[in-house]
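pasting for the record
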Amino acid sequence: MQQKIAVQDVTTFIGKEMGLSEWRLVTQDMINQFACATDDHQWIHVDEEKAKKTPFGGTIAHGFLTLSLLSTLAYEALPELEGAAMGINYGFDKVRFMSPVKTGARVRARFVLDDAEIRPSGRVVFHYGVSVEVEQLKKPALTAQWLIVAVMEEKSSNL
């Protein structure tokens, strides 16, 4: 069961780790599907034979595939905000691709709440420091600051 936090408690979590996802296997099929969806067929991602001759020893995931995985990793790792109807991606700051993700590697995401703004509209803007870790590597694949807006459910005025 996903942990829930109340809006009034959000700021008490600033500076704390809010979630750590499960490990996720990055497969060649996943990479190929991402290449098709984005029309990015650079050989280092999709040509297994040619990629064997590189220092990576095989294909690697697109950096943007690694970034895109944050949505699903966040969904499984982050607590739910009580009364939120949905979360909306508000953008990223300081995205850095630090290490390649080799095909067959497992990754997970770590989320630290850097800041939270409770807006007059009732929306909450979360500022997460995120890192995507690669199993058995010290250096993360990716680091970024991610902004997510929680849109609150409408209160019914009908009694």
